[in-house]
Amino acid sequence: MKIYSHLNLAGFSNCYVIVNEKIHEALVVDPGTVTTSVIENIEISGYKLAGILVSHNHGSHVQGLSTLRKIYTPQIYAADWEVAKHETNILKDDGVFQVAGLDVEYFSIPGHTLDSMVYKIGNVFFTGDCLFAGTIGSTIAKFMERMLVKNIKTKILSQSDENIIMPGHGPPTTVGTEREFNTYLRDA
After folding, report:
1. Segment among 38-47, 152-161, 163-172 with least mean pLDDT
2. Integer Cα distance of 120 and 101 in angstroms
3. For residues 41 and 18, what is the distance between their CA atoms, to the nearest angstrom?
4. What pLDDT score does 154 carry?
């Protein structure tokens, strides 16, 4: 598995292209914009775009979805039906599915939005706007923040320190780094 990171300058969000070299299939996580380099990651090596993983339905994470749907016919995974209407594979709670020959674990982590999903492939978490390096996603109420923190601690920080976190915005980090240094997640 290889992961290519792309920056969406309009929303300063991260889009990821994940490729499974063994079967020549790819996934896209949070297509906030579709640039030439995103398409090149898929096309140059002849990958089939098998799936799109959406962390939540905000423009800076889904705006490029319509472009990808015009070019490819991938499976679309999200917790919000509005993402792609009848073409959306609706996810709820926690579970596992397989796409592009990869096991994709998913975790419902509401707080930033009600439809927030985190995906884990191998030892890499794609956290959308739930968890960033040194902080957590914005919420609209203190209750939502407490719920977000509780779910991050239960579902992400319970994992091994070496697990990598690829957030929706900003640089990558690790579970161990966030457990030790993220002030939102340390117990008082």
Report:
1. 38-47
2. 14
3. 9
4. 97
What is the side-by-side strand order in the sheet with 75-78?
2-8, 13-20, 25-29, 48-53, 75-78, 88-90
Residue 10: predicted pLDDT: 79
10 Å Cβ neighbour count for 20? 19
Residue 157 has pLDDT above 70, yes or no: yes
Could you tell me the pLDDT band of residue 187, with boundaries at 50, 70 and 90?
confident
Mean pLDDT within 51-62: 95
- Concatenated DSSP letters for the chain? -EEEEEEETTTTEEEEEEEETTTTEEEEE--S---HHHHHHHHTTT-EEEEEE-SS--HHHHTTHHHHHHH---EEEES-GGGTGGGEEE--SEEEEEETTEEEEEEE--SSSTT-EEEEETTEEEEETSEETTEE---SSHHHHHHHHHHHHHHTTTS-TT-EEEESSS--EEHHHHHHH-TTTS--
Please, what's the b/e burial string for 63-77 (b: 16 or more CB within 10 A of its CB; e: otherwise)? bbbeebbeebebbbb
